[in-house]
Design a protein that fits this description.
heterodimer, A: 299 residues, mainly alpha, MetI-like fold, 0% strand, globular, disordered N terminus, B: 354 residues, alpha+beta, five-stranded antiparallel β-sheet, 20 strands
Chain lengths: 299, 354
């Protein structure tokens, strides 16, 4: 999923527009139009055509087939599993992200840069490796394999493994979004709250979180999109058991490998819709942030 | 409430921000901590508030040791340099914050909070802005809201960090007079930090001059201005001319001119620095009897405003002397650039080289 993670850029876009549009700095008309044409062509070829293809292929055999493919018990179970994984991973990473960002942005401590690097680790590691890590730890041949077997707990090739892998790959989004925002805001407002007699919790709920609410929502949207769309890591730990351990992306792959194109694209269209909804939400949040920034600039 | 600060030390890494600072602030006084940036004055203010912990030393509020007390328990009001207003709350909610976060038992009712907040907003004359958000206010308005917010919790001590630093010159002047009047009304023990000597001298009851983490001098504005105890204080409080001199039995010899100084009568042949304020430089067109004088050439005349500033070049060396005359005196003398004159320093103050 190719969603940019640089929220702050949008805060300055309005300002830049105003500055950049003077005649002296703009290119000749033909240069501008050529550049725009190249971008449009590129977008059409690589984004719009595939997106349209998903929906045409999904509806090729009619709307009834489309609905049947989605209401198939295996499809429903994969939807359910995807929702469960997201429902667990997103709140956990929300709490973790806020805690990490708060610690990093507002306090000085040893090992801070190591913590920042660790938070970025899931971005740097291939998702397949991320999945394998959990297989190595919790799998039958892994470190805790025999212990888990003795207690009859299944992690790998079961829902817990999928949730773990999902948490791992979506780990950095919220923290990454909040750290620069909180750092830019500094800690004067928190100190003001402290002097006025607020407790740590009151400061968090009444000052810190309201100040970063849009960045937080943005991080949650990205986390959710990634959690529902993750393929690699989940694929390694899932075991591809139909109706049991298949998430939406895995289900699409299975259907496609079975030459069941209409059903594969029908399920894929759900993910495409998710991506579109994500984009709309993202744009809305960016618009809100830009507007707030504008109000701040007026001062 | 009185504040006693005893032997405070604070280091940031290898940098010594405060080095054995002691200070008493009597109840109800308005005290200025004055010093150049990086001298430790803000650190001292933050230690009093409890936002920083000293490495050693103690703070007493009204005789009781408050060193270990948490920020929330100290009952101080703090106005931050950049105001630190809560940007997502209205002006009303900003001021109400300190009351709303109180535990249930001591929290006033909503009606009471509303009454108190409006009372405070009227005090700072900004009641009409209650529904605005901080980014919509001007700097001076934000400053006053920050003050109202700090006063809402009825603090025993009011601490202000560079309260006028971020304002333009005209608003700054208005606001500092207003702060002085407000203090005279409320009589709350207040400490403010500033690097602006004019501000410190105009507003405060007492000035604490701080340099490099140490207190240089404590006194009324009159005292520190008229009797600076060190070259640093002399230079920091207003313009000053500095002369290298030889001190011998109550006389300072500056480039062959012997000036009487009313001190150091027993000192013999010591090097020292002599200081004279520009308004203590008298200028004559002809030699005035026996009194010791420098010969000098008028190098530059700046005649805008009530005072005329002259730069004079001494005949015997490169150094420039700065002098201030009233417009009246300037016209009377009829001085022009390039003219030869005689310079008579008054109130020479000498500090022997250590």
């Amino acid at each position: 999923m190719s969603i940019s993670t640089t929220l702050p850029a949008s805060q300055y876009s309005n300002y830049q527009n105003k500055v950049a549009r003077s005649r002296a700095t703009s290119e000749p008309v033909w240069v501008r139009w050529t550049l725009i044409a190249i971008v449009l062509l590129f977008l059409t070829l690589f984004l719009i055509v595939p997106l349209a293809a998903v929906f045409t292929e999904a509806l090729r055999k009619g709307f009834d087939t489309y609905i049947t493919a989605l209401t198939d018990p295996d499809a429903l179970s994969s939807i359910k599993l995807t929702l469960i994984a997201a429902a667990i991973a997103v709140p956990l990473n929300l709490v973790f992200g806020v805690a990490a960002a708060w610690a990093i942005a507002k306090f000085e401590f040893r090992g801070k840069s190591i913590l920042i690097t660790l938070i970025d680790l899931p971005f740097a590691v291939s998702p397949v490796i991320a999945g394998l890590i959990y297989v190595l730890i919790f799998g039958l041949q892994g470190w805790f394999g025999s212990t888990l077997l003795d207690h009859d707990i299944k992690v790998i090739f079961a829902i817990p493994g999928i949730v773990l892998a999902t948490i791992f790959v979506t780990f950095p989004f919220v923290a990454r979004e909040l750290i620069p925002l909180m750092q830019a805001q500094g800690k004067e407002e928190e100190e003001a709250g402290l002097v006025l007699g607020a407790s740590g919790w009151q400061i968090l709920w009444r000052i810190t979180l309201p100040n970063v609410k849009w960045g937080l929502l943005y991080g949650v949207i990205l986390t959710n999109a990634r959690a529902m769309g993750e393929f690699g890591a989940v694929s390694v730990v899932s075991g591809h058991i139909r109706g049991l351990t298949n998430t939406l992306p895995l289900h699409v792959e299975i259907l496609y490998n079975e030459y069941n194109y209409a059903a594969a694209f029908a399920v894929a269209s759900l993910l495409a819709i998710l991506a579109l909804v994500t984009l709309v939400l993202k744009s809305f949040v960016e618009w809100k942030v830009a507007r707030d920034a504008q109000i701040n600039e007026k001062s | 409430m009185s504040i006693e600060i005893k032997n405070i030390r604070k280091n940031f890494g290898s940098f010594s921000a405060l080095n054995d600072v002691s200070l008493d602030v009597p109840s109800g006084e308005l005290v200025a901590l004055l010093g150049p940036s990086g001298c430790g004055k803000t650190t001292l203010l933050r230690i009093i508030a409890g936002l920083e912990t000293p490495d050693s030393g103690s703070i007493h509020f009204h005789g009781a040791d408050a060193t270990a007390q948490k920020v929330r328990e100290r009952e101080v009001g703090f106005v931050f340099q950049h105001y630190a207003l809560f940007r997502h709350m209205t002006v009303f909610e900003n001021v109400a914050f300190g009351l709303r976060v109180r535990p249930k038992e001591t929290r006033p009712t909503d009606a009471e909070i509303k009454r108190r907040v409006h009372e405070l907003l009227e005090l700072v004359q900004l009641d009409w802005l209650a529904d605005r958000y901080p980014p919509q206010l001007s700097g001076g308005q934000r400053q006053r809201i920050a003050l109202a917010r700090a006063l809402a919790v009825e603090p025993k001590v009011l601490l202000l960090d560079e309260p006028f630093g971020a304002l333009d010159a005209k608003v700054r002047k208005e606001l500092r007079r207003w702060l002085r009047r407000l203090h005279d009304e409320l009589h709350i023990t207040s400490i403010f930090v500033t690097h602006d000597q004019e501000e410190a001298l105009e507003v405060s009851d007492r000035v604490v001059v701080i340099n490099k983490g140490q207190v240089e001098q404590i006194g009324s504005p009159q005292e520190v201005y008229d009797n600076p105890v060190s070259p640093f204080v002399y230079q920091f409080l207003g313009n000053v001319n500095q002369f290298h001199s030889q001190i011998h039995q109550g006389e300072a010899n500056i480039g062959g001119v012997g000036l009487k100084i009313n001190a150091h009568h027993d000192t013999k042949h010591s090097a020292g620095l002599a200081y004279v304020r520009p308004h203590d430089i008298e200028i004559h067109k002809v030699r005035n009897g026996e009194a010791p004088a420098f010969e000098a050439v008028i190098h530059y005349i700046h005649a805008i405003g009530p005072l005329v500033r002259l730069e004079l070049q001494r005949a015997d060396q490169e150094d420039l002397i700065e002098a201030e005359l009233t417009q009246e005196r300037f016209r009377e003398l009829g001085l022009i650039q390039g003219q030869n004159v005689f310079v008579y320093p008054r109130n020479v103050r000498v500090f022997l080289n250590a």
